[in-house]
């Protein structure tokens, strides 16, 4: 494992293992608009077939995918997240495993693989490519890979620092509490930002950024639409993978949304 891989793994896994992160990902229940659009594109082709849910987290994607097929397995590299999944869905199959080496899965054994919530962007560049190769290995010919990734053309990719947002309330007590929480989080954000900027990578192909997610507690991968499509072809997927913005509309090179959802296919 390269030094960059080790650094990114340490930072991101430490954040994901926190009880606060598990609680955060346990609260959401359904797919985003982009995720729903992508899944609807392939649902009829994979209905009742083998589904692999990579980076399942605390189980947000489980129920929507089970509606497509009961032949389902969820995988995550964070044991705390897998434990949360077992508590929520005791009769569903989950495995603690690394998407870079899914050794329990045979070649050409999966009809649909999904990696949601920009999870594929939580590893270093070479690890990301390895995940794409590994997903390609386990997919059957004609199988689909749905995943989201941060968009290098969005404003977040060049933002230096953001203060916590405060949702307005007409209730003065509630507003005061929200302001107090924002003030308390600001030094944490600043300390993390200053500490982790040294790990950032920015070039014409991709960026590895300490962005605002988790109060600047993680390192995330950003890539443009065009380069992501090229990367997929280099990893053996079909050319011109479909992509959708956060509103579920076909993405273009001018899309400025923070993340894009891709529908890739193994030939």
Q: How is the topology of this model organized?
A:
Elements: H1 3-16, H2 19-27, H3 33-46, E1 51-54, H4 62-68, E2 72-76, H5 79-88, E3 94-96, E4 110-115, H6 125-138, E5 139-151, H7 172-196, E6 201-202, E7 207-209, H8 213-216, E8 220-223, H9 225-234, E9 242-244, E10 259-265
Parallel strand pairs: 1-2, 1-4, 2-3, 4-5, 5-8
Antiparallel strand pairs: 5-10, 6-7, 7-8, 9-10
H/E series, N to C? HHHEHEHEEHEHEEHEHEE
CATH architecture: 3-Layer(aba) Sandwich
Q: Give the strand content.
A: 15-25%
Q: Tell me roughly what share of residues is in helical segments.
A: 40-55%
Shape verdict = globular
Please provide a written account of the structure:
The protein is of the alpha/beta class and about 270 residues long. About 40% of the residues lie in helices and about 20% in strands. The chain has one domain: Vaccinia Virus protein VP39 (Rossmann fold). Strands 1, 2, 3, 4, 5, 6, 7, 8, 9 and 10 form a 10-stranded mixed beta sheet that branches. The protein is globular.
Question: Could you give a short description of this structure?
Answer:
This protein is an alpha/beta fold and 267 residues long. It is 40% helix and 19% strand. The protein has a single domain, classed as Rossmann fold (3-Layer(aba) Sandwich).
Core attributes:
single chain; globular; 10-stranded mixed sheet; alpha/beta; 267 residues; Rossmann fold
């Amino acid at each position: 494992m390269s030094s960059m891989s080790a650094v990114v793994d340490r930072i991101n896994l430490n954040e994901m293992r926190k009880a606060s992160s598990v609680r955060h990902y346990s609260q959401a229940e359904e797919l985003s608009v982009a995720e729903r659009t992508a899944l609807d594109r392939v649902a009829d082709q994979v209905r009742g077939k083998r589904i692999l849910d990579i980076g399942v987290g605390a189980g947000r994607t489980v129920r929507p995918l089970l509606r497509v097929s009961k032949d389902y397995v969820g995988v995550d590299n964070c044991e705390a997240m897998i434990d949360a999944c077992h508590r929520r869905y005791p009769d569903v199959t989950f495995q603690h495993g690394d998407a870079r080496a899914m050794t329990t899965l045979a070649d050409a054994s999966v009809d649909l693989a999904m990696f949601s919530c920009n999870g594929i962007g939580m590893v270093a560049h070479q690890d990301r490519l390895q995940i794409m190769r590994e997903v390609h290995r386990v997919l059957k010919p004609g199988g689909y890979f749905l995943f989201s990734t941060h968009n290098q053309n969005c404003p977040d990719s060049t933002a230096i620092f953001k203060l916590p947002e405060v949702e307005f309330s007409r209730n003065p007590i509630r507003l005061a509490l929200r302001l107090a929480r924002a003030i308390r989080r600001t030094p944490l954000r600043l300390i993390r930002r200053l500490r982790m900027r040294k790990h950032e990578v920015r070039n014409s192909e991709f960026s590895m950024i300490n962005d605002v997610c988790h109060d600047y507690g993680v390192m995330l991968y950003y890539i443009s639409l065009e380069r992501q499509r090229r990367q997929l072809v280099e990893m053996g997927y079909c050319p011109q993978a479909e992509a959708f913005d956060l509103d579920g509309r076909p993405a273009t090179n001018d899309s400025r949304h923070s993340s894009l959802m891709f529908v890739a296919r193994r030939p």
